[in-house]
Amino acid sequence: MRSYVINLDRSSDRLVRMTDRFASVGLSFERVSAVDGRLLSPTEISDVYKPVFGAAAMTPEEVGCFLSHRRCWERIASEADPYGCVFEDDMLMSRHADLFLGEDTTWIPAGADIVKIETVPGRGVWLDRAVKLLSGDFKLGLLRSFEFGSGGYILSKSAAERLLKITRVFSDAVDHVKFNPACGIANSLKSYQMFPALCIQTQVFYPKGSDLVDEPALATHSLPRFPDSLVNRPWLIRKSLQTFRRISHKLRRHRRTVIFFADKAAR
């Protein structure tokens, strides 16, 4: 299973850090030159991005970020390997990463489209109650709710082929397309979450203001593009819908889980 790291040509320092992080856990990667959204012309953006009426537009950086991930999907789709692993270049790696990111992919469930190996702490996610036990006290659970983040994930060759066809023109950020049921595509993907997680963004792991933090370089995020999301509903309606969703998950025997990073100290 090859690993691909998305890196802007102007971010050579981040590439050095990612090289060191991978080497520290005995792994290697292939660099994928990121699409710099700041350099995209209006025509280049309109060729691939279709805005959603009534919702905030994606920023040029978000469009570039999506195109960068598509470059990784193209590599995965073109290789013989059944899976590939995609990273953005501000990720910290667990010292246990080599257990799962080498040649052996037999631990990945049959039919899995995506395995999310990143965590965005502070948000619980709904998973199937039944989980798959892995080496080193790691587990896999089938995702049953939206979870942010595209900093680290494993993608199957077949899912890469499907995503490339579906997203020749896109309307939402890459993590929404892969994981948000509101986008429609996510419902057709079988996505798993590894817990604890193998990687985490530096800006999430280190204290605010730390010299060790890499500020996001690939994407400057826009406002939420789903005007009917709960945050925009009146308080009573929002609480009622949240309660309904929680009861619905429990009736289906899903469990809410907070995904922690595997290491207290990261590389």
What would you say about this model in short?
Helices cover 28% and strands 21% of the residues. It has helices at residues 12-24, 42-48, 60-78, 157-166, 174-179, 202-205, 235-251, and strands spanning 2-7, 30-33, 83-88, 91-93, 114-116, 124-133, 139-143, 152-156, 191-195, 199-201, 254-258. Helix 1 (12-24) links the parallel strand 1 (2-7) and strand 2.
Could you characterize what this model shows?
With 267 residues, this protein is of the alpha/beta class. The chain has a single domain (2-221, 253-258), classed as Spore Coat Polysaccharide Biosynthesis Protein SpsA, Chain A (Alpha-Beta Complex), CATH 3.90.550. The chain is 28% helix and 21% strand. It has seven helices and eleven strands. The strands form two sheets. It has a nine-stranded mixed β-sheet, sandwiched between helices. The chain has a two-stranded antiparallel sheet with strand order 4-10. α3 packs across α4. The longest helix is centred in the first third of the chain and has 19 residues, at 60-78. The chain is globular. The model has no long low-confidence stretch (mean pLDDT 86).
Point out poorly predicted stretches.
Answer: none
* Euclidean distance between termini CA atoms: 21 Å
Radius of gyration: 18 Å
The global form is: globular
CATH class division: Alpha Beta
Q: Beta-strand level of the residues, as a percent range?
A: 15-25%
Taken together, the total number of domains comes to 1
The largest beta-sheet arranges its strands as: 2-1-3-8-5-9-7-6-11
Measured as a percent range, the helix fraction is: 25-40%
